[in-house]
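Handout, section B. The chain below has 67 residues.
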Amino acid sequence: MECKKDRNSVDCTCTYPGCSKHGVCCDCIRSHKAMRELPGCFFPPEVEKTWERSYEAFAELVKEGRV
């Protein structure tokens, strides 16, 4: 499968400094899944900047109707 890193990088909302997975969604998802997290692109910008990406944080946002 062809990696679309250049195209994905345009839409990647990750603000983590020096992220080596920026734009490489399959690696990003694999990494976050191993830590019971979701990638930053699943979160609203103000929450993504906190780097709190746990399943629980996402579930709370869903309950609040914020995602």
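Note. The first helix runs from residue 5 to 11. Compare this with the example in section A.
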